[in-house]
Design goal:
The protein is an alpha/beta fold and 201 residues long. It has helices at 17-29, 40-43, 50-57, 65-83, 100-109, 150-160, 178-200; strands spanning 2-8, 33-39, 86-92, 116-119, 122-125, 132-137, 166-171. Helix 1 (17-29) runs parallel beside helix 7. The structure holds flavin mononucleotide.
Amino acid sequence: MKNILIVNSSISGEQGQSNQLIENFVQALGSQVIETRVDLNQQQLPHLAMNEFAAWMTPAADRSLEQKELAALSDLSIAQVQAADVILIGVPMYNFGIPSQLKAWFDRIARAGITFKYTETGSVGLLADKPVVFFATRGGIYKDLPHDSQTPFLKAFFNFVGLKNLHFIYAEGLSMGADSAKAALEAAKAQIEDLTTELAA
Ligand SMILES: Cc1cc2nc3c(=O)[nH]c(=O)nc-3n(C[C@H](O)[C@H](O)[C@H](O)COP(=O)(O)O)c2cc1C
């Protein structure tokens, strides 16, 4: 039985292509999964601000009630990541970057002393490695091109917190006509078949 953490960040709900590809992936994995779902479009995490950051830096026993509530946002997000065997993350391309909802979630995952630490030789990720699958849905074409702002950032961020077993399912050219979108989604579904077989093995 695998514990799957599903993180949706599309603003388009059930119509979101990244959300639909995630559902395809979960179905392909079969029924032997426990799902934890985080829909960032519903959860609406605020931008990280200093009062929340200060709550993290205050020892848990000394936190005010407000600081306890603020720290709980990050504590819960990190606990969900720690508990997962596999993490699925929807990553639509919005205005040449990741959705700000997803960035707000990343801002709760990066915690000094909990998910990373710095040493004299550099940073060390503290999360136990596990497969992370990104569902990168894009109107245009960016994969392996210099103007792909998402993939290098995702690799850098997840490696920083110790997650190195990263997989990317791309559906590109979704705004470039019906034929382009159809071909992209078919290619993504074929990738999903292969990857779910690999991860189930
Ligand atoms: C607000 C907004 C901004 C977008 N910006 C870009 C962009 O910069 N580059 C791109 O290739 N596609 C862009 N698109 C197209 C989306 O990447 C495409 O519709 C994709 O399907 C979004 O994923 P989703 O369906 O899971 O939300 C944008 C779409 C929206 C709604």
